[in-house]
Structure prediction request, 689 residues.
Amino acid sequence: MFDRSKLDQMKDKANQYEAQVEKSIARFPERRETFVTGSNSEVERLYTPEDIAEQDFLEDIGYPGSYPFTRGVQPNMYRGRLWTMRMYAGFATAEESNKRYKYLVEQGSSGLSVAFDLPTQIGYDSDHALSEGEVGKVGVAIDSLADMEVLFDGIPLDKVSTSMTINAPASILLAMYIAVAEKQGVSADKLRGTIQNDILKEYIARGTYIFPTEPSMRLITDIFAYCSEHVPQWNTISISGYHIREAGSTAAQEVGFTLADGIAYVEAALEAGLQIDDFAPRLSFFFNAHNDLLEEVAKYRAARRMWARLMKERFGAKKEKSMQLKFHTQTAGSTLTAQQAENNIVRVTIQTLAAVLGGTQSLHTNSKDEALALPSEQSVRTALRTQQIVAYESGVTNTVDPLAGSYYIEALTDQIEQEAMDYIRRIDDMGGTVAAIDKGYIQREIMDAAYEYQRAVELNEAIVVGVNKYQVEEESPTGLLRVDPVVGENQTKKLQALRSSRDNEAVEAALAGLKKACEGDENVMPFIIEAVKTYATLGEIADVMRSVFGEYQQAVIV
Amino acid sequence: MEQMIRVLVAKPGLDGHDRGAKVIARALRDAGMEVIYTGLRQTPEQIVAAAIQEDVDCVAISILSGAHNTLLPKVAALLKEQGAEDILMLGGGVIPDEDIPFLLDNGIKAVFTPGTPTSKIVECIKENVTK
Prediction:
């Protein structure tokens, strides 16, 4: 990037600097022997043009909005439109969640994000034995189309974009969304939103899987194929590093494993006969925003450049849109502390800056009380205000990719790309991501990093303010949001009423049709849509699929 | 030779957040205990059956879904039913302070919330299990 003769001229000055530092350290030792990033990667004292001498501006950094998209996917980024401030929310019942969504829209939230409770995420109805104590706890309980109609009541589905955090039963919830829209008179081609639909990271880190790997990958490619024809504006998958990072991975692992998952989906879709440029533009990503501000910014930039190169060079994509890595970000739940919870607002602010300086397309900011319980309305508002302050007051949105050209940022972007590519090569050598998951390789690498971090905290090598330094005696927090246990009972009553009032013959017929489709190789989406319209429940539909596909057995790795 | 303390680390309920369970499993192992980890989505019945079959001294339950008030006492009650109430029961996860007295009254010896050093859990097990 720099003139070699200029770099050579720097040598003398660099030597002088080294000598000066040696002298200074001899008198005043540095605070620690080595300095590391939040991912335990060593950081040099100083970065200079020498560290990025090998970089080529046009090939490696370039202009925003064009290949390799290191600086962002749009040419003018936030000068045009700010990122979507998308707050993940979903409480107990469809009625309550509906109220919260209306509140968020009034407060200026520009997209909805639905959290489902765990039984819904794992394809059990609220009255299933395993649902006991879990109904409505971490999100909304959806048992049938009837609940989904209530959830989006009064919200025009052609006007909002909706993100649904749903994976193993993503096909079923998407089918319900399409059916609700149809009742509102909104055709599927007008729908905008995202389903997470990323099963591989469920096996790796998040745990809400149902079916074994092979039928799961088929369901995903069926969704790709169906949406590219009927729901063209829908993001069919959100390939998620978020949970990999929450499970304790490093920044480079987050990028490496997430992009490896992405490669697996692309390969599965190509194998199913889809054309790369037909589905690749609808792939989206989801990353974490941690506390190490500059490492995180470098991480997003590295991920964008890598994906562009992979899509172009490995998969031969032709459309620019296929090469653009677009991503949602959520601030890191695992960095929040139960101790002195108000400090979390500061952490979330740093993380917000990281996501914005890294060029995110949408962002959820966590609330300060999330290490204690589900967030209260007031703390959700503060979290949203944090984004708005960064957007309107901090000035970082005025120019595109403002940290580009920093010797440190560019060197770190390179380093993360190299480390992440090493992981992808290792996974390729193992026979791909599914094989690497089956061997427990990915899970073990993450676990090692998580344990290493815990050890560093306990030895006070890593400082967490309020936890292992600057502690105070505190009163127990009160007024935490709680889910009424009656929710489970009500949901069960609703189910009973539904089962006796619907046309059960139609349900049986639709489920039989779905079973046949699962056994064969027809696209299952039209059959699932048919089934949800008869008010077959989520659990009934998932059970039909379980009966054909079987269930995933987890490899227990400690 | 001193007999090793045996611990079952268990994850009841449906939540998949097992970073804590796994970190604690490793820490207990590094502290010289024998550790069995159940994996995800265990019913209270499965946990109790595993505890008895593996003849453990301690069951350490990790739960982050909010279902602790239902599931932890259920495990304790089932252990008692099987005559295994001498097994030390510990709970951990995102559990509000105001729920802790209820859990302590219902067969849980100690509850550990976010930010607890693993050394504290090791200490608690060593104090309460005599071998």
Residues 493-549 of chain A form one domain. Chain A is about 50% helix and 10% strand.
